[in-house]
Design a protein that fits this description.
78 residues
Length: 78
């Protein structure tokens, strides 16, 4: 059984201390970087979705028969 004098406990404690007290603003900069990454992911996901819609619309514009078929299917459903 691992006691308080185990080397693993001391390593974990040392890592926590270094993260918390390693320097001014380290945690806030890590959190800021995480927030920026999340925002960039959401932005790219949204732009990718818009690009797919634009590409689908261009395909329908290029093939009017397919576009008419899609309109008929939508009318039949709704």
């Amino acid at each position: 059984m691992l006691g308080m004098n185990s080397w693993l406990h001391w390593v974990i404690l040392l890592i926590v201390v270094v993260i918390l007290f390693g320097g001014r603003g380290k945690i806030s900069s890590i959190a800021g970087d995480l927030g920026k990454g999340i925002n960039a992911f959401k932005k790219n996901l949204k732009s990718s979705s818009e690009e797919n819609k634009d590409e689908a619309q261009r395909a329908l514009d290029a093939n009017p028969i397919a576009g008419e078929r899609v309109k008929k299917d939508e009318a039949a459903k709704g």
